[in-house]
Design goal:
The protein is an alpha/beta fold. Helices cover 53% and strands 10% of the residues. Strands 3-2-8-7-6-1-4-5 form an eight-stranded mixed sheet. Helix 5 links the parallel strand 6 and strand 7. The longest helix has 21 residues, at 399-419. It is elongated and about 100 Å long. The termini are far apart.
Length: 420
């Protein structure tokens, strides 16, 4: 694992300027933004860290090399020589490497650039990415590469930056400025990458029920954004993420007694989260999708069982769905036939199960029929299909999702009828 700063240079004769990041101006003016990036971000780098500059053959001649090396060079001192001077000034020994790339004029050249960038990164590298002088389709291609290596090589994107000279005016106007006023802001674009990550994480949770990616992103990814809330530390967001992760784990392991409180905590955390996201408007609709899904859930002990079984069906958690639904029928009998509230009490559950299995006459026939059908499918799936195919109660893999959907609807009718 090492730190790497990836950057591009073009052919333009760049204007010597100061740079500013996070309200701090560079110690001196620089011809190239990469010099300022070393000052701002690489002062603690070790010898095995690396600054990689991607360049075309022309940009190598124009801006990488000095006039002593190439008569076509724009400057007496090119970027290569200037970076060595900056390293010497800050007593740094990290490696600087140039990588030649094509101009990206066609798809073949774009794939070459993709491979060059991918090949420059190793497992678990920590990346700072500068897109100031990336040209044509390179900014988009670069984001694709970064997301590709995040998955394939487990790299971490520490920062994405952009030196916005246009914030000062046109190149002609900037050249006319006194150099002390020529301060180019460096924008931190990392929050946009975070937004992309959160979009995927929330989509994954709502599609699969797995909150692991949300948990791994965690509140740390949002801290730079939450700084705008003047002291808010994301308590609501943290509570919501923790509750969603706990809910996810409880569904996967069928912790039915926890569902009611899980849903309550999620619903209680959503208003706090919405308030914290007032100044982070792009994030608000993402978390709004979670609110939309959970706001419609019933949170009584029997109703929540139907809701969780439905959740399991939606997420492909078929085995968990049958298990939860089976126990929900027992909850129904304890609540509506035995008229008891302690659903955890072992004797109540045992009595309810005996009543169901013996077809106790006070239990409605539709409840008994549903119970025995659920038990049949639940036993088959829990015993991993080790039944004789010739037996009537052997079910193929395609049967379970269809029957779970049917059983949920029948269970929902019973619950709603009882509530009426």
């Amino acid at each position: 694992m090492s730190c790497k700063l990836l950057s591009f240079i073009g052919t333009t004769p760049y204007i010597e300027s100061y740079y500013a990041y996070n309200n701090k101006r560079s110690e001196r003016p620089y011809q190239f933004i990469q010099e300022a990036l070393v000052e701002f971000f690489c002062r603690e780098w070790k010898d095995d860290d690396e600054l990689i500059i991607f360049m075309t053959e022309e940009s190598q001649r124009k801006n990488w090399l000095s006039k002593s090396e190439c008569e076509d060079a724009n400057f007496d001192k090119g970027l290569k020589e200037r970076l060595e001077e900056v390293k010497k000034r800050f007593k740094l020994k990290f490696n600087v490497r140039n990588v030649e790339i094509p101009e990206g004029k066609n798809e073949k050249e774009l794939w070459i650039i993709f491979e060059k960038m991918n090949g420059s990164l190793n497992d678990e590298d920590v990346i700072i990415f500068d897109i100031t002088h990336s040209f044509r389709s390179l900014p988009m291609l670069s984001l694709v590469v970064l997301n590709y290596v995040k998955f394939l090589k487990n790299v971490r994107i520490e920062r994405i930056v952009y030196g916005a000279m246009e914030a000062l005016g046109s190149p002609k106007e900037v050249r006319k400025m006194p150099i002390e006023e020529r301060i180019i802001p460096i924008f931190d674009l990392t929050p946009f990458a975070s937004l992309f990550d959160w979009t995927i994480a929330i989509e994954r949770f709502l599609q699969t029920g797995n909150a692991e990616m949300m948990r791994k992103l965690g509140i740390e990814e949002l801290k730079p954004l939450l700084a705008e809330t003047r002291g808010e530390i994301g308590g609501g967001l943290r509570e919501l993420i923790t509750s969603l992760d706990k809910f996810s784990q409880n569904v996967l392991t069928c912790r039915s007694p926890e569902f009611k409180s899980n849903i309550e905590r999620i619903l209680n955390a959503i208003p706090k989260t919405e308030k914290e996201l007032e100044k982070l408007k792009p994030f608000k609709p993402l978390f709004g999708k979670i609110k939309e899904r959970f706001s419609s859930m019933h949170i009584n002990d029997v109703g929540s069982g139907i809701e969780i079984a439905t959740w399991c069906l939606e997420k492909g958690l078929i085995q968990q769905g049958f298990t939860v639904l089976r126990e929900t029928i027992i909850n129904y009998v304890i609540t509506n036939i035995l008229k008891r509230n302690n659903l955890r009490k072992k004797t109540y559950r045992e009595v309810a199960e005996v009543m169901l299995n013996s077809k106790y006459e006070e239990i409605p026939s539709e409840v008994l029929n549903l119970w025995h059908e659920i038990v049949d499918y639940r036993n088959d799936i829990n015993h991993a299909g080790w039944r004789d195919r010739r037996e009537q109660n052997y079910h193929s893999s395609t049967d379970f999702e269809r029957k779970l959907k049917e059983f949920i609807e029948r269970g929902r009718v019973l619950v709603e009828r009882n509530n009426d």
